[in-house]
Amino acid sequence: MERPQLLEYVKGQLAKGVPRAAIEAHLRGQNWDEAVIADVLAAAAGSDSPPAAPAAPARRKFLTVALLLALLAAIWGASQLYRSYSVAKVVREKTKFVEFAGKISGQLEDGKGAQFGLLAFRGQLDSSQIDTPKAALQVTFDPNAPLGYISPQTDARLLALALFSIGAGAQTIGGLDVRLADWNTYLRPARLPFAGDRTAAAVGGLVTALLGPNILTDFWVKIPARAGAEETAGAMISNESKATWGLLFRPTEKIFGESKELRFQGKERGGDINGMPTDIHRYAIDGPWLTRQLVKALRDAEVDDKLEMITMLQDLVLGADTGKVTANLDSLEISDGELAVWVGRDDTLPYRMDIRLDAKEGTSAPLSLRLSGGMEIAYAEPAAIKIPAQAINLKQLQEQIGLLQGLGNLFR
Predict the structure, then answer these.
(1) How confident is the model over 148-172, as a mean pLDDT?
(2) Is 16 within a domain?
(3) I need a surface site. Which of 59, 125, 211, 310 has the fewest CB within 10 A?
(4) Are residues 304 and 399 in the same domain?
(5) Mind listing the pLDDT tens digit for each residue in 326-362?
(6) Cβ neighbours, 10 Å, residue 359
(7) Domain limits for position 311
(8) 261 is a domain residue
(9) pLDDT category, 17, cuts 50, 70, 90?
(10) Distance of CA 370 to CAs 91, 112, 334, 356, 361, Å?
(11) Residue 278 CB neighbours (<10 A)
């Protein structure tokens, strides 16, 4: 369009923010033709429109900043994960060798009677070879179990048998040595009940010639932890990496997590244990749930004939046929218990555990028992655990008992 001075004037007015209508009115007052006014305003408006191209660089800048922030966040997260994994590796090194020791005490009549010892234990865990972990446990029975306070007419078969077995075991075998490896449990008496007896030595020599290891000599009993364990032996965790990742993602604020069966009650400051500052994590144990689990385990063991030996010992101790251990389990009741765990603040590992449970069984002549236990735990002390090369199974043990009873009659 020709009239550049008029165009520059209109553009200047628009730039100053003068309304379009005011500019039109002013131009009409100067007697400009309507067509000229429309052309000038259209040309001024078109030349002042901002170009669309600069928006693209702005978007690219925003995306660049966003990607940079995301990259920094990823690097920070990776560094934190690596740091946590490094800490987990240190904890894993500490837990390759574990030692523990503790004791279990009891009180009759819901804790109103005098406290007495039941057993003491100590053990070692070697998981340095993660695919073939091993454990050893030595149990010593306390000879002060109050057998005289238990009525012979009690129908609390399980609790009574447990107390009688501890008392009788303390007088005869003293305790048990236990080994765990490849899904198998190995047991033997801490001392042989017939040691030093000439007749038993003669019978033992004969049985050794016939059967090999037997209950009159140094022997181990092998009990598979699950059906077909010998054919399907294997590790729960197959390599160090999995073990470390398991430690990395374990609960630490609540050492055993929280569930309906194990309810977290809170934590408080504890004292130092071997120089490690601790917090005490407190839990409530669901007694009815524990009762159901124990009853199920006993009845499953009965189906697998794993309680036959216990029944034989029960009849031997009481001198009569008392029936099945599981005959009166419906009356067993374990009330809610308490668990306290002393947890290291630096490594979040348990260093001490205390537990209390109340159990009651029987109807016509019931038995009430309060159990209290404690355990101390230490880490990073190498332990040499040997697994027996030879062992007999439960069936062989039962056969040997029957054979020894027959041979024993020959020497009467």
Answers:
(1) 79
(2) yes
(3) 59
(4) yes
(5) 666 788 899 999 999 999 988 888 999 999 999 998 8
(6) 24
(7) 95-250+287-335+348-410
(8) no
(9) confident
(10) 35, 9, 10, 7, 12
(11) 22
Structure tokens, 85: 């994994």
Tell me whether residue 257 is in a domain.
Answer: no
**Torsion angle of alpha carbons 359, 363, 366, 371, nearest 10°?**
0
How far apart, in whole angstroms, are the C-alpha atoms of residue 354 and residue 165?
Answer: 24
Say whether both 178 and 303 belong to one domain: yes
The span from the CA of 273 to the CA of 189, in Å, is: 33
Q: Is the pLDDT of residue 237 over 80?
A: no
CB-based contact 254:262 (threshold 8 Å): no
275 within some domain: no
Average pLDDT, the chain: 76
CB-side neighbour CA atoms (13 Å) of 36:
13
Distance CA(134)–CA(94), nearest Å, equals 16
- Can you tell me the distance from the alpha carbon of 361 to that of 368, in angstroms, rounded to the nearest whole number? 7
pLDDT at 194: 58
Under the banding of pLDDT at 50, 70 and 90, the label for residue 192 is confident
Sequence letter at residue 232? T
Number of domains in the chain: 2
Do 142 and 117 form a contact (C-beta atoms < 8 A)?
yes
Who wins on pLDDT, 339 or 235?
339
- Same domain membership, residue 310 and residue 227: yes
Helix or strand run (H / E) with residue 69 = helix 55-94
DSSP-derived 3-state class of residue 323: coil
Structure tokens at 306: 């794993």
| 290-320 residue pLDDT tens | 998 888 887 776 655 555 655 655 555 555 5
